[in-house]
Structure formats: structure tokens, C-alpha cells
Amino acid sequence: MNARSIALTVNGRPVNGTADVRTTLADFLRHSLRLTGTHLGCEHGVCGACTVLVDGASVRSCLMLAVQAEGAHVRTIEGLAGPDGELHPLQTAFRDKHGLQCGFCTPGMLMTLVEFLEENPDPAEAEIRDAISGNICRCTGYESIVAAALQAAAEIRERRR
Amino acid sequence: MRAVGRSVPRIEDPALLVGKGRYVDDIALPGTLHAAFVRSASAHARIAAIDTAAAAGMPGVHAVLTAADLRPVLRSLRLPLGASPTSSENSSTPFVLNGHEAAYVGEPIALVVADTRYEAEDAAGAVFVDYEPLPVVADARRAVEAGTPAVRTELASNLLNRMMVAFGDVDEAFAKATHVVADELWQHRGCGHPLEGRGVLAETRPDGGLCVWSSTQMPHDLFHTLAGMLGLDENCLRVVTPDVGGGFGPKYCIYPEELAVPAAALLLGRNVKWIEDRRENFLSAVQERDQYWSLEVATDGDGRILGMRGRLIHDQGAYAPKAVNLPYNSASAVTGPYVVPAFAVEVLIAHTNKVPVSSVRGAGYPQAAFAMERMIDLVAARLGIDRVAVRARNLIPPEKMPYTKPLKARSGAGIVYDSGDYPACQAEALAAAGWHDFPRRQAEALAQGRHLGIGIANAVKGTGRGPFESGVVRVAPSGRVSVFTGATAMGQGLATALAQICADELGVRPEEVGVIAGDTAFAQFGLGGFASRQLVTAGSSVHIAAKAVAAKAIRAASTMLDLPEAELELAGGEVRGRGGSNRGISLAEIATRLRGAPGYAFPAEIEPGLEASIQWKTDALAYANACHVAEVEVDIETGHVGVSHYIALHDSGRLINPMIVDGQIKGGIAHGIGNALYELMGYDEEGQPLTTTFADYLLVTAPELPRFETLYRETPSPINPLGAKGVGEAGTIPAAAAIISAVEDALRPFGVRISQTPVTPEFLFNLISKARAKQRAEREMPA
Ligand code: FES
Ligand code: FES
């Protein structure tokens, strides 16, 4: 063990912990912080299931070390709904449009799309497909995910008005 | 409003959407140790020595276990045949750990148990295995040739099984044929790749028993295998399927790791967890891989099929964890929705030094559909008849339903297609696809140098395999309604569908029904998830059980309210008098009374408990059918195939939840498109896997896919009380055949024939280049 103490913010809460220098951010979130909503589908950076936001940008948490997150703001699926439990428009849309089956890719899909819709509030279908091209889903055939993203985008635009 | 037939939102989703799912690796038990496997680096070698000393001394390591170490807690080192009535081992079932002769790269040899997964993996890398190389057989066709060395030295022959699947007088059919077409086909299906790999957590219990969580489709099979192999009292064992991140077939097997991890837990007296990584999944989760078909089709002058014959070589890999039903499925399903009077296909099942083979979504049926549909396209091309006309001439007409294929299913029952109108399905799909207008669009595109093609494929799939699935419906004294079943949820939405079925009978809403699936502590009997069976079988059991509970509630209420049963109805969670009577009693109160109280009177002629347990039995299959039409554009300079339109018509009987059905179909199509164009599990001649990451093995992603247009006909199946047919595999089965038909159509100007999956850009580029060179040579040839 070559442990370091680290301090970061996770879903708005300050966290102090220790992590072996080689521990990935994904394992730190899942096993040290017990935030098991972030999933691991490949552990080699291709499937996107482990996507979280680090300082607002999507990151594959299987490819980042926990110690690299020192001082960062990390956002995971557990931080997506409001403090009162109100679902994010993407979460609602995924349920309405059947954007998930087994749910294993879902956290990564949601976090990827959260970032994407913040930057592209009025996306075309093809842009959404490109945005999730780094996220593998074996269950859905993606169409329902794309439909969910379109519904969420409309809802987010509506709320901003 | 009744829930069945409506797209009610899934009851699974609220937890999954906020990160509160509970997959096996999410379960944290105190004091859990972590396992990593040492796997063979050689496709075939005698294991001369295993040196564990260095690994054992590494930080955090509790034990390095070999086959010899596990032997004391195992009845045998060899697994029994999975999913079989006898459960005995044979010379092709896998080993829990193999300490003597490795037969594929990835075969488990030893197991390291350490404080963390990181430390376990470090130490696994430090176990030294001395391999003495033995000859490797990587090609199934070579495996069955005389003189080829055995893939395991214990085998006399690589031919695991040889069978003839036949009916009618095929020689006579060929003798009187006007045309005979022949082809050699190679089909590769690849791996299942649920996004969540396999994983096992074994908890030691104070009574000396175990609780085992596994990401499996088969909890009850695992339960019985563990009880037998570990010699555990069944009453001290529980197997639980937690949330499962996809099944797709590979989790239908019982694996060495599912035995080794619980055995290690017993041996060490500690909780032990193993979570597969993706590389391990490539190296050790079953694959469906390769079939080589040689086929001949005999027709009359109009393209009517008279007979079909040939041979199928099925690559079984190094072991057969289950009985080899899959190639039988392929051969017995190849004639599909068509009338074929005479048929004879010899099936050769060959061992190779590769990862063992069992089912991947479709389980032999996609190959069957591919073989048949490619042959029909060939008949059409040779006879100069339109592809859809040949199909229409040969489809089983609706007036012949139910239609018997003179073959037997695994249960011994005849193969009887129960319902459906195949010609109407094809006609409707073609109309939706604009098939008859396509030649014009194709010609216009070609004039601009663009190569469009359209393809079609029909398919049938026997669904709802028996013999039964369990369904228990219980109302607790709290009023909580629960369904317990041995069926296994692996992401399809099974809980929602069962809740809908139950809710309608009990007059409650689906979200008020809790479903516990795949937990041996709650369901004594169960078979599990395979063969698109669970909605049909478990759904029928739940339907009947819920009806029984409703009837019992009314009977009990009749006594309690002193009203005749005929004047009572069940709605909104209570039994009340019909026609606005204000007398009523809630299900909770009835359940409380039926719980009994010490020494107090109990309603006469009513059994305790507001519950019913049903195992609806069947040996017949409900046959779903489909017609897919695909449109593609091929870039002839790069060999790239773009799928531009996709129409899928399915008759899956009565739809319980159309939204879930549509999700299953679309996901299945994506899988089939992957099989057609992208997914290739590569091996070199020494049996070394060449594709062990998602960067090498391509799963289809969103930009490659068009929007799918799905259409449904609902011909109720007459053989189950729901009228339902399974949908888990139906979308996959015709997809690759439709895509390849379209690619070949796009390349018509080059006159090429495609007889394989997958077709990569490189393959197509070479095919096109060769055809163009030939065309050039012909043009330049002096007349
Ligand atoms: S687990 Fe990180 S990209 Fe797949
Ligand atoms: S919902 Fe299962 S992988 Fe996407």
C-alpha cells in the first residue's frame, strides 16, 4: 500500500479519504465511498459505463486515479436528482421512453448526456447519437436512449424559459 | 384500467435511475476477501508444475488455491452437466480448477484470495505455471478430420457428437428436382457481452452453510450444483440473483468460478467475492462462435422447395458445459417458416482448443435463419425469380396452422407451430418498407454512383420452453402483494410484466406488487432464464396463481362479511359488495385473518394464508415469427456498410407490455446487426484469442444504427393462458440474414455472393476488388 489522503467534493459534499495511489477513481467511489451507482463494464476505457463528471467534464473513472481527483468536484449518478429527490429531466425521460433495460450502462449514459445537454440544449438526433458513441449499451439498441435525450432536452429548454 | 396490454412504466426503473441498483459487486459484506483467477496462457498444454510460493508471500494474500487444495471440499473436480435432468459429469464437462492439462487460453488453473482485488490480481500474476505445449486444434473443420490430434488427451476423438436431423425422402426430392443450388456458409456469432460481466459472492453462514449471490440466469441450477458438489445440506444453502446487468445467454451456464469461489469460502471460513473483468469475460465466458454449413436445396421450376440436405460442423470449444442442444436447435430450426417436404442435415459437433461454446441470444436460431434465407436468395438468383416471390411460394400458409414439422423438440414433443400468418406478415413488412418501389430508388442512387441494397429475412422462434416455471402470489397481512418466481430477471423488465399480470387479477396497480425473482429462499422451484421462456411460463403461473388468490379472497370475504360470493367483487385492494354496497374488507384484513391467531376460531373450509403457488406446465412451444427488411448503402471504395432503414415486423402473440416488447426487439436487432457487420471473436492458429478488449471486438454503438421501424401483429398463442409468445431473442434471429441479403443486393453490379457473417469492411473491400478486376479482365479480353 502506498496510501495518500485525499480531499475532494462528491455530489456537493466534502469528502476526506485515503486511497492507495493506484486505486482508480471508480473503485474509490464504489468501494471506499460506497457510491455503487457508478458501474464498471470494461475497466479499459471503452464502454463508458463508469462515466462521471469531474469539475463538470465527463471522465471515465476507470481510467483516472482517485488521487488525481484531489480538490476536484465529482458528480455521480447519486447526485443527479435534486436534494428533495426530484428526478433530473433525463432520469424522468429515461423512464418514460424505456431508455434502460438492465440499467448497467445507465449511469454512464446519464452522466454523459448531462454534460452534453448542458452544452447543447437543442440537439439533433444525430448529435445525440454521436454524443453517446463512447457509451456501449447491449440491451436497448440505443433508440430509446436517443428518444429520452430528446425529451429531456425539450424539458430542460422549457424550464430555462 | 387493466395493466396487461399497456406500456406501464417499469417498476425496476426508480432504483436503477438513481444509482440504487444492487448488482453483485455492489453488495458489501464485512470481512470479504477478494478472488482472482490464474488462467491458462496456453491453448493446449500439460501443466507440469504450479509454483505458488512467491504469490503466497505477497501482501494481503490469504491463500493460493489449486485443484488439489479445493479437492477436499468438492465431490469432484469436474462439473456436472448443466441444465440436465441427470446432473452427472462426463468427459466433456469443465473442471472447477484444472491442474493437469489446459485446453483453452483462459481456463482457470488456480485461485488467489487476498484482502483486495488489486492484491489478488498482483499475486495471480506471480503464480508460476510450467506449461508443456501440446498440439493445438483451433479450427472445427480440421478437428473432425482423421489424424488430427485430440484437443484434450483424455479424448479419443474431437467429435463430441454426430447426429442426423432428417425427415421425408430427401434422395427422392433431389432426384425429381428441376434445380439444385449449393453453398458453403460460415457463421460466426461472437460473444454475449452483457455489460456487467459475471460475478460471485459467497457468504459463510454460522450454520456452516453458504449464501451465494451470482450474476446468473440460472440460480436454481446453481443451487443444486452447489449442494451436490459441496455436499451441503440444501437447508443451509441459498442462491440469490441480485440485479443482473444483462444475460444474453452466457449466464445460462454454471461456471467453474461459481464453484471455486464458494469452495474457497468454505475452505477459508471467510466471505469471498470474485468480479470478472472484461478480459476474463473474453477468455472464459461461453461464446457461440462458429458453424460451418454445406447445404443443397432442391426446387421445382418455380422455386418451390422440394428438399434440403447437407452438413453442419459446430465448433464446441474445449468443453461442453451443457448438453449440446444448440446445434440441434440450428439444424431442426433451419427450415423455419417454410414448407420443406424432405430434409436431411448431418450435425458434427467438434471440440477445439478455444473457449467453450453455449448459447448467445438466439442460441442456434440465428444461424438457422441465416442459412435458410441465404439459400432462398440463392434459389431466387439462380432461377431469376424475385426473392420475395420465392419466399411467398414456400411460406407455410395460415390455413395449415397449427403446422407440424416432422421433428422432435428437446422434450420429445413434436415441433408444432401453434399460430401465425407468415405470408401476411411478409406482405405487411414489405409494404411498410416500400419494397416494390425500391428498384427505382436503387437505380437512381446507382446513377449517382451510390450502391443501395435491400434485404429480407423471415424467422420463427419456439419460445416459452418448459417444463414449467414457478409462480407464487402472496398477500401479506400488511396488504403487500408479492410475486415469487424461479424465473430470473436480467434486465428485460420481467418484474414489471409479472406485476402487471398479478395486479389485474387482484385489482391493484402494478407498482403495488413486489416481485422477487431468482432467489432460492423465496421460490422452491425454478428453472431460470433461457429460450425466451419466462413471460410465457412464469407469466402463466402467476396469472393462474393470482386468479386463485383472488378467488380465495372472495371466498374468505364472503364468510367474513356474510354475503354470497356472487355479490362480491375485488377492486382497489379490497373485496366489497357489488353495486355500491358500503360493506367491504381489505386484502390486508383478509390476509391478517387468514394468518390465524393462537387458539382463536378460523374461517371454516378455508386454508390458512392468502396465497397460491402454481407451476404451470408445458412441453409445447409458442412460436413467434418475424419478417425483417433492411436497407443498406455500401461504400465500394472502403467496404463500409451503412444501415439506412430497418423494418421489423413481429408476431409475438399477445403483448403484455408493448413498450418492453419493443425494447427487447430493438435491442435484439442491434445485436443481430453487430453479428452481421462487427462482432468477431478472433483466434490465431495456436488458439490465442486476438480480440480481448472492446477496442478490438466491436460492439455496435449508437451512430451506426438507423431508427428501427417496428410493427406488431398479435396472434394469440393458443397454448398458454396469456396468449403470449416470448420476445427475448426474436429480434436477433433474422437480423444478420436481412443485412447480408441487403449488402449482396447493393453489390449486384459486381455479381458477388456472400455466405458468411460477419462481413467486415476489409472482407467486402477484397470481395469488391476481386470482382472489379474480373470484370475489367473480361472487358479487356479480345472478343
Ligand atoms: S468501465 Fe470505464 S470505460 Fe468501461
Ligand atoms: S440497459 Fe443494459 S447495457 Fe444498457
TrEMBL record, chain A:
Looking up SUPFAM superfamilies in the UniProt record yields: 2Fe-2S ferredoxin-like (SSF54292), CO dehydrogenase ISP C-domain like (SSF47741)
List each copy of the 2Fe-2S ferredoxin-type domain by range: 4-80
Do the record's keywords include Ligase? no
Which InterPro entries is this protein grouped with?
2Fe-2S-bd, 2Fe-2S-bd_dom_sf, 2Fe-2S_ferredoxin-like_sf, 2Fe-2S_ferredoxin-type, 2Fe2S_fd_BS, Beta-grasp_dom_sf, Diverse_Oxidoreductases
Keyword Oxidoreductase part of the UniProt annotation: yes
Gene Ontology molecular functions: 2 iron, 2 sulfur cluster binding; metal ion binding; oxidoreductase activity
Q: What is this protein called?
A: (2Fe-2S)-binding protein
Instruction: Please indicate which superkingdom the organism of origin belongs to.
Output: Bacteria
Q: Which UniProt keywords apply?
A: 2Fe-2S, Iron, Iron-sulfur, Metal-binding, Oxidoreductase
Q: Which organism is it from?
A: Propylenella binzhouense
From TrEMBL, chain B:
Which controlled-vocabulary keywords does the entry list? Molybdenum, Oxidoreductase
Q: Which SMART domains match?
A: Ald_Xan_dh_C (SM01008)
Q: Keyword Oxidoreductase: yes or no?
A: yes
Which one of the record's GO molecular function terms can you name?
Answer: oxidoreductase activity
**Family matches, as Pfam families:** Ald_Xan_dh_C, MoCoBD_1, MoCoBD_2
- State the InterPro entries in the record: Ald_Oxase/Xan_DH_a/b (IPR000674), Ald_Oxase/Xan_DH_a/b_sf (IPR036856), Ald_Oxase/xanthine_DH-like (IPR016208), AldOxase/xan_DH_MoCoBD1 (IPR008274), AldOxase/xan_DH_MoCoBD2 (IPR046867), AldOxase/xan_DH_Mopterin-bd_sf (IPR037165)
The membrane-spanning stretches of this chain are none
Q: Which domain of life is it from?
A: Bacteria
- The answer, when asked if Oxidoreductase is one of the entry's keywords, is yes
Where is each Aldehyde oxidase/xanthine dehydrogenase a/b hammerhead domain found? Answer: 18-135
Gene3D superfamilies according to UniProt? Aldehyde oxidase/xanthine dehydrogenase, a/b hammerhead (3.90.1170.50), Aldehyde oxidase/xanthine dehydrogenase, molybdopterin binding domain (3.30.365.10)
Q: Which PANTHER family match?
A: ALDEHYDE OXIDASE 1-RELATED, XANTHINE DEHYDROGENASE
Q: What is this protein called?
A: Xanthine dehydrogenase family protein molybdopterin-binding subunit
Q: Which organism is it from?
A: Propylenella binzhouense
